[in-house]
Amino acid sequence: MTDRLWNSNYCKVMTANFSLFFAFYVLTPLLPLYLSEHFGATKDVIGLVLSGYTITALLIRPFSGYMVDSFPRKKILMIAFGLFSVFFAGYLAASTLLLFMIIRTLHGGPFGMVTTANATAAIDVLPSSRRTEGIGYYGLSNNLAMALAPTIGIFIYQLTGSFELLFWLALIVACCGWLVDATLTFPEKQIVPNRSKLSWDRFFLVRGWLLGLNMVAFGFSFGVLSNYLAIYGKEVMGITGGTGTYFMLCAVGLMLSRLQGGRALRNGRVTHNAGEGIVISFVGYTLFILIPTLSSLFTLHSSLFTSIGYYGSALLIGLGNGHMWPAFQNMTINVASNNQRGTANSTILISWDIGMGLGILLGGVISELLGYSAAFWSVVLVNGAGVACYFLATKAFFLRRNLNDTVR
To answer: Residue 335: CB partners within 8 Å, gap ≥ 6?
Structure first.
């Protein structure tokens, strides 16, 4: 008899994970606009303010992995999720740019903790025979939130013009996720014993360092895209109302990735899914940045070509990320021992955070100095380097260190 994948606890952590990422990403594409309109912030200042969140999440990640491995997991999860939810109220109260920056920066701490704790909880409640497949679907929950939340946020803003309403929506959705996680029941878990020797493996999975380094490149790409897409589309492409549709098509690509890649994950072919995903994403990012150039070659149908390329890139990026993310998460977990699940999860998230933070910060600086086109060309270059790294080194690195014979 096949072990049940969709048990009640697994459905709960999936729902809670979607809620916390929805609350985060419903604001992401509009915060640059909010900072510009409400506080008069310049491009480089916007990048600095927004990157503070990711930097704080990055700093807390190594400790969060250690804590969820070493202390009662549900207690850590509930405290972190509660703090993450409450911080959204701070955005409503921030009356100056400095105060907003402080609140935004501090908010990254509980985000870093709760994402690690909830991802580790998902592994705990999965039957071991369905873990690889289950991690794939779990990753889809935050990928879908990344795609759907900006679409909904932009639609609400276009309809109402109210940033305050969006802050309230994020607060309410986050609180709903906290309530869902409050009903979880955890199996008994092995607590990491106290170790007298301080080692990096308490905080970062050293065995998976190259997987993490590779993920930085992909996080950088999505960091620039998700934060500067609306402004780039308006200033460079002349597309003023297509950002919501863009993220919706990303979501469609993510769902298609489950239909296309689900069998490979069930059969443990994680390296296949990872390779396929990063190549598809690279094609999507390259198409996106080439749209203005290619459109000029088709002067009679330039607007049609621009639209097809613009929205086609969204499908490709969504499809690629839907393959890539769960595959890299699975690979990182499978080079870790069972009592390092939290550390493995925090490691892959640390890497994504570094990439996202660099993308947000450098994207703002590059766009201020050289324009948004240059910022998006940096995405193609960094993403291409990540693809090359995977096929030249990372895949073999994983296969040498893999501890799970059913995964390849």
So the answer is: 205, 207, 208, 211, 344, 398, 401, 402, 403
